[in-house]
């Protein structure tokens, strides 16, 4: 099948990836090159739909055999201001850890001069209200394929707060529309100090764009 499609598209058959679809037409399962399956086994007949059987194809820049030993990831960079600035794609060995991903990301983004030079990678909880941070030692091959990853620069104020937990407190902040249950956007961490009034917190709009 790869050979025939490659000939038709005039594309290297080893740089093609195929995906089956669900009844709704959405992508379902990426086909592994190592599986010795006939096309008739891949495409299960549907008696409930008159639509023809379909397999999606994708043109790759690297060989499928190389891709299957690596993990393709996309990371949304929010910097230090909680704004979705850019999305960066990466192709790393599946045995790499999240810290390796941070090192690669640091080469692509602009960190704050004289800042912490620390990057935090996280995903958003299902309710949209908090960050679920990675420690850095997780193997990227074990991260679920559908996980949306975010990354931000850890501010110096947060590290300072960790050194004096009896004085400063780090809270999680999230955006919502009218009702607290209707969360949206990217939640972030915020340092609260005992001498800071609410109005002074609001004035920090460059760090908290939700005010």
The CATH topology of the largest domain is given as Ubiquitin-like (UB roll)
Radius of gyration equals 22 Å
Instruction: Count every beta strand, where a strand is a DSSP E run of 2 or more residues.
Output: 10
Largest sheet, spatial ordering of strands: 5-4-8-6-7
Class from secondary-structure proportions: alpha+beta
How would you spell out the order of helices and strands?
A: HEEHEHEEHEEEHEEH
Helix content: 10-25%
Major sheet description: 5 strands, mixed
The second-level CATH architecture of the largest domain is Roll
Count the DSSP helices: 6
Task: Record keyword descriptors for this entry.
5-stranded mixed beta sheet; Ubiquitin-like (UB roll); single chain; 211 residues; alpha+beta; 6 helices; 2 domains; 10 strands; 3-stranded antiparallel beta sheet
Write up what this structure looks like.
The longest helix is centred in the middle third of the chain and has 9 residues, at 98-106. The strands form three sheets. A five-stranded mixed β-sheet has the order 5-4-8-6-7, covered by helices on one side. The chain has a three-stranded antiparallel β-sheet with strand order 2-1-3, covered by helices on one side. The chain has two domains: 2-65, Phosphatidylinositol 3-kinase Catalytic Subunit, Chain A, domain 1 (Ubiquitin-like (UB roll)); 70-202, Phosphatidylinositol 3-kinase Catalytic Subunit, Chain A, domain 1 (Ubiquitin-like (UB roll), Roll), CATH 3.10.20.90. The chain is elongated. The protein is built from six helices and ten strands; from the N terminus they run H-E-E-H-E-H-E-E-H-E-E-E-H-E-E-H. With 211 residues, the chain is of the alpha+beta class.
């Amino acid at each position: 099948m790869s050979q025939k499609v490659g000939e038709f598209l005039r594309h290297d058959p080893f740089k093609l990836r195929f995906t089956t679809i669900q009844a709704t037409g959405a992508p379902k399962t990426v086909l592994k090159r190592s599986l010795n399956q006939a096309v008739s086994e891949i495409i299960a007949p549907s008696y409930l739909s008159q639509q023809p059987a379909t397999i999606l194809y994708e043109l790759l820049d690297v060989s499928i055999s190389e891709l299957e030993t690596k993990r393709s990831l996309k990371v949304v960079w929010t910097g230090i201001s909680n704004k979705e600035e850019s999305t960066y794609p990466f192709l790393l060995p599946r045995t790499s850890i999240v810290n390796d991903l941070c090192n690669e990301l640091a080469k692509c983004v602009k960190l704050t001069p004289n800042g912490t030079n620390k990057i935090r990678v996280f995903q958003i909880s299902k309710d949209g209200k908090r960050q679920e941070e990675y420690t850095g030692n997780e193997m990227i091959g074990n991260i679920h394929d559908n996980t949306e990853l975010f990354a931000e620069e850890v501010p110096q104020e947060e590290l300072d707060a960790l050194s004096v937990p009896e004085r400063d407190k780090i809270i999680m902040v999230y955006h919502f529309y009218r009702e607290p249950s209707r969360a949206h956007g990217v939640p972030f961490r915020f340092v609260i100090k005992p001498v800071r009034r609410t109005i002074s917190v609001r004035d920090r709009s460059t760090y908290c764009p939700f005010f």
